[in-house]
Amino acid sequence: xxxxxxxxxxxxxxxxxxxxxxxxxxxxxxxxxxxxxxxxxxxxxxxxxxxxxxxxxxxxxxxxxxxxxxxxxxxxxxxxxxxxxxxxxxxxxxxxxxxxxxxxxxxxxxxxxxxxxxxxxxxxxxxxxxxxxxxxxxxxxxxxxxxxxxxxxxxxxxxxxxxxxxxxxxxxxxxxxxxxxxxxxxxxxxxxxxxxxxxxxxxxxxxxxxxxxxxxxxxxxxxxxxxxxxxxxxxxxxxxxxxxxxxxxxxxxxxxxxxxxxxxxxxxxxxxxxxxxxxxxxxxxxxxxxxxx
Amino acid sequence: xxxxxxxxxxxxxxxxxxxxxxxxxxxxxxxxxxxxxxxxxxxxxxxxxxxxxxxxxxxxxxxxxxxxxxxxxxxxxxxxxxxxxxxxxxxxxxxxxxxxxxxxxxxxxxxxxxxxxxxxxxxxxxxxxxxxxxxxxxxxxxxxxxxxxxxxxxxxxxxxxxxxxxxxxxxxxxxxxxxxxxxxxxxxxxxxxxxxxxxxxxxxxxxxxxxxxxxxxxxxxxxxxxxxxxxxxxxxxxxxxxxxxxxxxxxxxxxxxxxxxxxxxxxxxxxxxxxxxxxxxxxxxxxxxxxxxxxxxxxxxxxxxxxxxxxxxxxxxxxxxxxxxxxxxxxxxxxxxxxxxxxxxx
Lengths: 293, 346
Prior knowledge:
heterodimer; A: 2 strands; B: mainly alpha; two-stranded antiparallel sheet; disordered C terminus
C-alpha cells in the first residue's frame, strides 16, 4: 500500500514539475532554445508574490494576480531585449546569454532579499496542510491535488490556446517553419515575444507552488531548472505538450519511489531515470515530431 | 592603377603559411615565459606563489572549457563534475596511502578515463541537451560523493596527508605541478589544433553539418576534446584542492566553476587560442578588485558574460584578431597572395 501511496504522491509532485517544465517546453518547441534562467524566473515569481504579501494580508493564490501581468511584461521584454538578439547567432549564444541571466537574477535576489530561506506555506492557510485520509497508509494532501489540478488546467489551456486561437495557430506555424510563416504574413518576432511572455508567466505560477510546497532562497532556481529540463527530456524533447506533463509525472514518481528506498535518494533517483531515458534509443518517452515526420 | 604589366593568365600565386615572424617570436616568447615561470617560487614571495597557482588554475579551466565549446561547439555546464572528481579522487588515493602529488597525477588520468564511457552518452547530444546533460551528471556525482562517509560525506574533507610536506615546499610543489599541468594541457591543445585533426576540429567549430558532409569524423574529433577537457578540469580540481587543502561536495561540485569558465572564455574570445588565457587574467584581476563584495561581483560576472555573448561574441581577443589580422599562436593557416594580384582582364 505504501507503494500505491508513493506513486500517488509522485504523480502529484509530477504535476508540479510539469508546471515548471511547461514554459521551457513551449520555448524549446518554438525557438529551439532552452532558457537556462527558467528556474530563477520561477523563483523571481515567488519573491514577487512574497513582496505583495508583505503589503497585503492575503493568500498567495490572490497575491499572484498582480504578479502575473508583471511577469508577462518581463517575459516580453526578455525576448525583445535579449533572446531575440541571441537567436541570430546559432546555438551557443542563447545558452550562454540565459546562463549569464541566471547568475544575474540569483545574485540580485540575494542582494535584494538576503540569503534567508523563506516559505509561503503559512500564508496559504489550510490548503498547505490539509489532506484527505483514504486509508491508514494512503492520504492525499490538498496542496498536491491542487498542484496537479492547476497543472492539468495550464496544459489544457495552453493546448486549447495553440489549437483554437489565431495567435496559437501563428505559434504552431512559426514552430514548424519560421521562414514560411513569415511569407504568409506572420511576424515571428512578435510570436516569439508572446510565447516567452506566456512561458515566464507560467513559470511564476510554478514559483508560487514552489514557495507554498517548500522553502525557497535566492539560489533555488538551478535545482528546479534541472528538474524542469528533466521533465521535458523524459517526455521527449520536441514532442507534444502533454508529453511534457507526462515526463514531469515520471520524474515525480521516480523521486518519491527513490525516496522510499532511501531518504537520501529522491533527487539521485530522478537523475538516474533521466540519464536512462537519454540512453534509450529514442531519447524520450514520446517523440511525436519524429514519429510523424 | 594603370600602366602595370598584365599578370600571366594563371591563378595568382598564393602562399600558405602557418608561421609569421610575429607568431614565431610570440610562440617562442610564450615558451620562454613558461620556462621563466618555473623560477617564480625562488624569486618571489609566498603570497605571489599562491596567487600564481590560483591564476594558473584559472588559465587551465578556461583553456579546457574553450577546447570543448570553442572548438567542439559543445557548451558544457557540467565541467565541475571533473573538478570535483579530480579533487575527491586525490583524497581517496591519499587515504589509500598514495603520495598526494602522485595522487593528483593519477586523479587527472582517472578523470580522463571516466570521461570515456560518459562521452558515449553525452556526445549523442548537442546544444541544450548536452549542456544540461553534463550538468545532471555533475549533480548526480555531487550527491553520490556526499553520501560517502569515508569521503567526509556532506561536511567535506581535507587533504591532511599534505602535512607531511613543510608548508613552503608544499606551496612550491603545488605551484610547479599547476604550472606543469597548465603548460601540458595548453601545449597538448596547441599541438592537437595544429595536427590534421585540428583542421577537422576547426571545421566542426565553424559548421558541424558541413564538416560532416565532406567526411570529417565529427564525433571522433569531439570525443578527443571531451576527454582532454575532462582530464584538464580534473587536474584543475586536484590543484584547487592542493591550494585550499579542504573541500566539501557542494562547493567543489558548484556550477559556479563553470560560470567562471564561461565568463573567462567569453571575455577573452570563444574559439580563439589566446582568448581564454587573457580572460583568465581579467577574471583573476576582477576577483582581486571586486572579491570583497561577492554578490555584486557575481552580478557583474553574469552581466558581462551576457553582454559579451550578445555584442562581442568573439571576445576581446577574437575581435582584435579579426580587426588586425594578428596571430600570436599559429593554430590555423594563412593564405596570402604572393603579391597584390591584379585582376584578370574580362
